[in-house]
Amino acid sequence: MTNPRLTLLRRRAVSALLAATLAAALGPTALAQGSWPTARPITWVVPYPAAGSTDVLGRHIAQRLGAALGTPVVVDNRAGATGTIGGALVVKAPKDGFTVLHTTIGAQAIAPHLMGKLPYDPLQDLEPVALVGTFPQLVVVAPSQPFRSVAELIAAAKARPGQMAYASGGNGTILQMQAELLAQRTGVKFIHVPYRGDTPALQDTLGGQVQFMFAPLAAALPHVKSGKLRALAVTSAARLKSLPDVPTMAEAGQKDFVVEQWQAVYLPAGTPAPVVQRLNTEINKALREPAVIELADQLGITLVGGTPQQLAAVQRADSATWARVISSGNLQID
């Protein structure tokens, strides 16, 4: 009599063998040209909690990538350690295109200089695929605060050295780095109050428990529109269509202060170039789809795309910038 359990195990073993044989037969060049093994899913690692902007946008891109390749794409949230837990997972994955990292500037250009020795080098151990998008921050204060411009905020900080506090979504975030950059450029001293995420930081800024915050555009915009927050400036190069009366940091007196968050996609270093290029091509296609563009607009993200080389250049430049800021400020994870 046939044992059902043994039969099931045999079937699974045969399926696994067929999948491995198919992948080996196709090779990197075939993957790049249109044939993609469908017997196993792609793991799309997001090193941040679910429901954040990286997760939300990543899921939409992953869904379209799966449809284009004809294979499932499973999103795996591996939050923690400023995004480096998920990064470490991808670094150790096989170099075959089936484990993808959707991460941000925080893990790729800030954390390495702030956290000391990481289990991997973001510049050397991850292969750039595509820059997904960028988004600016707003310098915001509660209406109860007296500041109506960045100049007034800085003047108050100089008059009250070491007494002005700002909120951020945590140590090592771009929100903290922007405030530290402003402090270093203007010669003032702020108190950093890190929170576990942007939402509680924004709540205390709304309540006036801290004096100001560099806040993500999508999170802060509804409060600015409703009058619950006052926007003093935006960190983009040009004014925003959604807030035409809010000046840029340059217009507010801070020359060359263009600092934006970014999201990007990576693979383990050493992944064959044809595989990298295939994923780059499909991600760029996804970024041009109307539904993805509409979602990005809602999140305040400007979609970018482009080549792996362009992403690598952005990462190197930002890594150098934040290395200087962190060193000058003697910053470290609390």
**Annotated CATH topology of the largest domain:** D-Maltodextrin-Binding Protein, domain 2
Overall average pLDDT: 89
Question: How much helical structure, as a percent, in the residues?
Answer: 40-55%
H and E order: HEHEHEHEHEHEHEHEEHHEH
- At the first level of CATH, the class of the largest domain is Alpha Beta
Short description:
With 334 residues, this protein is α/β, with parallel strands linked by helices.
Describe this structure as you would to a colleague:
The protein is an alpha/beta fold and 334 residues long. The protein folds into 2 domains: 38-134 and 260-329, D-Maltodextrin-Binding Protein, domain 2, CATH 3.40.190; 136-234, 3-Layer(aba) Sandwich (D-Maltodextrin-Binding Protein, domain 2). Helix content is 46%, strand content 19%. It has 11 helices and 10 strands. The chain has helices at residues 4-33, 53-69, 84-91, 105-114, 150-159, 174-186, 198-206, 217-226, 273-287, 290-299, 308-329, and strands at 42-46, 73-77, 99-104, 126-141, 164-168, 190-194, 212-216, 230-234, 260-268, 302-305. Strands 1, 2, 3, 4, 5, 6, 7, 8, 9 and 10 form a 10-stranded mixed β-sheet that branches. Helix 6 (174-186) links the parallel strand 5 and strand 6 (190-194). Helix 1 (4-33) packs across helix 9, helix 2 crosses helix 9 (273-287) and helix 4 runs parallel beside helix 11. The longest helix has 30 residues, at 4-33. Mean pLDDT is 89; it is low at 1-26.
